[in-house]
Amino acid sequence: MANQLGVLNALDAAKTQWYHFTAIVIAGMGFFTDAYDLFSISLITKLLGRIYYFDALSEKPGTLPLRIAAAVNGVAFCGTLAGQLFFGWLGDKLGRKRVYGLTLMLMVICSIASGLSFGKSPDGVMATLCFFRFWLGFGIGGDYPLSATIMSEYANKKTRGAFIAAVFAMQGFGILTGGIIALIVSAAFDHAYKALPYNVDREHSTAPQADYIWRIILMFGAIPALLTYYWRMKMPETARYTALVARNAKQAAADMSKVLQVELNAEQEKVDKIGREQFGLFSKEFAKRHGLHLLGTTSTWFFLDIAFYSSNLFQKDIFSAIGWLPKAETMSATKEVYQIAKAQTLIALCGTVPGYWFTVAFIEHLGRFAIQLMGFFFMSVFMFALAIPYPYWKTHNTGFLIMYSLTFFFANFGPNATTFIVPAEIFPARLRSTCHGISAAAGKAGAIVGSLGFLYAAQSTNHDKVDKGYHTGIGVKNALIVLGAVNCLGMLFTLLVPETMGRSLEDITGENEEDNGYEQRFSVEKVPV
């Protein structure tokens, strides 16, 4: 294109090189840590209940009181939502690189601090855990818009979707590693400190040393993040930010000359010409050009995360409800952690991880729109297929687990990946990180609704089977029907999201075109169905 900067053309046309893989690993390890930290809490909530809310008179092991369970499960999401909005905005104001190291250090410090506690009282331990998990979430929140934007702005146009998907796919390995670490730690403690099942010896079913298990699991999340800190600090600022936002063509050309190992000319006069109309996020012009796109990215991410996070965080409750996990009272505390971790690791291995990498493999062939629509459709199908004949599945555990794994497979070979990718492509460079942060924050609002809603809703309709301190809910069957309906809404709002496959970022956003050309081109572009 006539107005396209040479440095951006070079990035768009670049063959896949070593720096692409370096960027994937550096950004991806942040996501590995994000997923590990966010989902590892589901491995230890039952253990926390046994340790800190033990009641010798109860026939069942201790469980977290309702308000504590809601706080422990939801507080990191509240922090993530705030972090996505704040760091998304900051990434556009100060630059992607300047903020990138800050989010990582926050994650490292708070991962370690999450495993520490002030005092021994249940309230003191839970308050400390929730405090540090909020700030852990805040750092994780910053990683979403920054990692997506950096990878999007570094990638070439032919493989951009696959590269962003590969960064996001590290989330699958984070979830899997969380399960594996929990398996190793719980097995080691179970071997070293034998404890009897709760229904045999209530008081000694939880070994005193079990208090270290949840701390080790949470603190391990700091290690992978810490290993990539140095490399994160060495990454240059993206050329698109330097040229199109900071308006420094010379620096953009110098940075990318080193990265691409080619000689690039600074074209300051072109930088001065393009993107002269700097409309803001709350302007009529933004609403006209990108309002429906932002509605599409926020709503689809919101609906996805209601289903995705509620299913992920409460796997253990679903497994217990269908009888795949032994009853809590028939196990010791360490054995229960082991069984929960084994179940979640199996689901991650069979459904979650493969789904992410199917997206990486097919996104540049099928496109974002088709994968997202297909994913929402099959998630709806499998949720309804689990819910409607629910009594049947109680006696056919294997079939239930296969279907349940398929919902995760199509979440990840579907909207869980594409909702992350598309907001990093369809908004102008000066608002890209902010709009991605807003879209991601809408997703985390969905995660909060899903995690807290499922906590209440999935309780049995039979009062005798409800956990201590909880009210009766609508049951797992009806909760799954609700999640299926939510996925149908996700399908509907996907129609607002444009296809971006194979096009340069500036072509998509119109940043290197005259205003009338932009409007005419974008208005006639149809979404493939």
From TrEMBL:
PANTHER family linked to this entry: SOLUTE CARRIER FAMILY 22 MEMBER (PTHR24064)
Domain (Major facilitator superfamily (MFS) profile): residue spans on this chain: 23-502
GO molecular function terms listed in the Swiss-Prot or TrEMBL record: phosphate transmembrane transporter activity; symporter activity
CDD domains: MFS_PhT
Pfam family, one: Sugar_tr
Membrane topology annotation: Multi-pass membrane protein
Membrane-spanning segments: 21-44, 64-87, 99-118, 162-189, 212-231, 345-363, 369-388, 400-424, 436-458, 479-497
UniProtKB keywords: Membrane, Phosphate transport, Symport, Transmembrane, Transmembrane helix, Transport
Sequence similarity: Belongs to the major facilitator superfamily. Phosphate:H(+) symporter (TC 2.A.1.9) family.
UniProt record, GO biological process: phosphate ion transport
GO cellular component: membrane
InterPro entries associated with the record: MFS_dom, MFS_sugar_transport-like, MFS_trans_sf, Phos_permease
Subcellular location: Membrane
Organism: Gossypium barbadense
Protein name: Major facilitator superfamily (MFS) profile domain-containing protein
